[in-house]
Please model this.
Amino acid sequence: MDLDLYNKQILRLAASISRVGRLPAPDASATAHSRLCGSRITIDLKLNDDVITDYAHELRACVIGQAVASVVAKVIVGLTIDEVDEGAEILSAVLRDKTLPPPGPWAKFEPFLPVADFRSRHGSALLPFQALQRAIAEAAPGRACQRPAVVSFGQVVRT
Model:
């Protein structure tokens, strides 16, 4: 196990996942799957206009995917669609350029800076956002054309 990759903060996040399960009547659901490592996440969400009002997920993922899903689950309720897109962009910048996340809800991505050196793990880290963006496109179809997709590293996204 590479200690830089699996630092204590990432391990703590992975061990403290909240909002596990499925919503009884979601506005949208989506699944993202990484062919590279076999990680999979299915998310359910409820929207009120552009605000996420409820969220749940089921995942089978590596520690990195679990830790990112944990961050998402902790901060997503109450965020707008634009803030979710901003989170995807921030995580992508952390992984691509080792950019420190700005203050705010996505500052919790700082422990993922060492993951930037392990490109094979980027896909697992981005899975929650791929599923989220797909579910948002389903729930708010008018927003789908305005939102950029997360960079894919061999994932398949299904609704």
